[in-house]
């Protein structure tokens, strides 16, 4: 294979990690200047900032009236686990897994909680399970976007409007980049470190009136650590949903989350965020269509993620390698891109098939992705020399 000249253009910003993700365009540390550091998070002014994060998140995402939104510990994982631990048990549950994070929730439900009547609906990397198999008499647990395979559910059409169970959705790599059908969901989680480029370690959850009813009427048979407790004496801890967090938050992270939300509003809110992310996916799709060595890992176009864009190397030389050889080759491509200083953190997730993963969330500029793509061709040709 002939050697390619290095592309003339380099991305202005080289941050394509799938989490923590690129900060919003123009972000500097100055965004944190007003942070209430050194203050109690229970002080009136600090609580007001936390409440502002809740309010702005609610507004940008279009969370329906009557839903409760909270900032919770331990990022998206904490938010999901507090929901699984508190909501699951009274009904059988269908857990959907098509990549690493969904598989993590399977472990929680099946091996840790051992929820009676748990069913696992699985699919290999690149595909979705058969969504028609889900029984909405049961609770259902699923990620909206499988971050490690780049496969997302295409919409909420498969979710029963008249479901008896609760739909519990890990939406951390979907919110702020994809429209969510709130009426089809009952509990939704995310963290700050993804589409708005916030800092890690704080989680958020939004729960519907039906989920609140479950919380208030059902007491799980297993122990609940303090950081999981959303109720007290059988009643919802209302303060948690007004900025009175379960434990101490970082006011620096709160300030940064507010900066991200203000930016989101300044560019036109959710529809603008979705457009930016879809434009990023389109840029990659246009390029992939012209390549004969790389393709989307997601097989069905309507399931291709616009945030965690996962690419599989399909060239015959790559396919002919043993598993370690493929992992090694993909790592070398990623290493070359790092070495050239054109892209950081674009290797596929440790449990996913070896390949590349480019973040296309709203904080990434399409022009930067477009500038990166010829570099992928260059790196591939370097390997094949
Ligand atoms: C779908 C999904 N779920 C859960 C997580 C875990 O998130 P966190 O590390 O913020 O807890 C991630 C992180 O990438 C994710 O993409």
Plain-language structure description:
The structure is a single chain. The chain is α/β, with parallel strands linked by helices and 385 residues long. 34% of the residues lie in helices and 15% in strands. The chain has nine helices and 14 strands. It has a seven-stranded mixed sheet, with helices on both faces. α1 packs parallel to α5 (251-266). The longest helix has 20 residues, at 270-289. The radius of gyration is 21 Å and the shape is globular. The mean pLDDT is 97. Pyridoxal-5'-phosphate (PLP) is lined by residues 19, 75-77, 101, 143, 147, 170, 172-173, 191, 193, 200.
Mean of the pLDDT scores? Answer: 97
Output the strand order for the largest sheet: 1-9-8-7-4-2-3
Q: Over all CA atoms, what is the radius of gyration?
A: 21 Å
What is the string of helix and strand elements?
HEHEHEEEEEEEHEEHHEEHHEH
**Number of strand elements:** 14
List its traits.
alpha/beta, seven-stranded mixed sheet, three-stranded antiparallel sheet, binds pyridoxal-5'-phosphate
Question: Quick summary of this structure?
Answer:
The chain has 9 helices and 14 strands. The strands form 4 sheets. Strands 1-9-8-7-4-2-3 form a 7-stranded mixed β-sheet, sandwiched between helices.
């Amino acid at each position: 294979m002939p050697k390619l000249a290095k592309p003339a253009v380099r991305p202005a910003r080289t941050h394509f990690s799938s989490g923590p993700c690129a900060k919003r365009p123009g972000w500097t540390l100055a965004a944190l200047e007003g942070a209430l550091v050194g203050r109690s998070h229970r002080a009136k002014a600090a609580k007001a900032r936390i409440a502002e994060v809740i309010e702005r998140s609610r507004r940008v995402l279009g969370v329906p009236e009557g839903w409760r939104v909270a900032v919770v510990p331990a990022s998206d994982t904490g938010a999901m686990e507090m929901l699984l631990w508190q909501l699951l048990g009274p009904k059988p549950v269908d857990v959907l897994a098509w990549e690493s994070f969904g598989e993590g929730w399977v472990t929680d439900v099946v091996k840790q909680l051992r929820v009676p009547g748990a069913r696992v609906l699985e699919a290999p990397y690149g595909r979705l399970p058969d969504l028609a198999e889900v029984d909405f008499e049961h609770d259902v647990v699923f990620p909206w976007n499988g971050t490690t395979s780049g496969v997302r559910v295409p919409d909420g059409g498969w979710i029963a409007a008249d479901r008896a169970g609760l739909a519990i959705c890990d939406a951390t790599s979907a919110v702020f980049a994809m429209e969510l059908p709130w009426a089809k969901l009952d509990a939704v989680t995310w963290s700050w470190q993804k589409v708005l480029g916030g800092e890690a370690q704080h989680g958020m959850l939004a729960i519907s009136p039906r989920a609140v009813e479950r919380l208030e009427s059902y007491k799980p048979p297993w122990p609940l650590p303090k950081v999981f407790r959303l109720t007290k004496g059988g009643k919802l801890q209302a303060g948690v949903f007004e900025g009175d967090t379960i434990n101490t938050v970082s006011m620096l992270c709160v300030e940064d989350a507010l900066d991200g939300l203000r930016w989101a509003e300044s560019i036109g809110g959710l529809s603008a965020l979705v457009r930016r992310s879809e434009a990023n996916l389109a840029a990659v799709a246009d390029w992939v269509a012209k390549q004969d060595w790389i393709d989307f890992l997601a097989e069905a176009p309507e399931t291709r993620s616009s945030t965690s864009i996962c690419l599989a190397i399909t060239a015959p030389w790559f396919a002919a390698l043993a598993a370690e050889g493929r992992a090694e080759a993909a790592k070398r491509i990623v290493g070359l891109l790092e070495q050239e200083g054109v892209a950081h953190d674009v290797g596929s997730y440790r449990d996913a098939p070896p390949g590349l993963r480019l973040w296309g969330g709203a904080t990434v500029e399409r022009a930067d992705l477009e500038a990166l793509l010829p570099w992928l061709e260059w790196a591939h040709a370097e390997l094949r020399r």
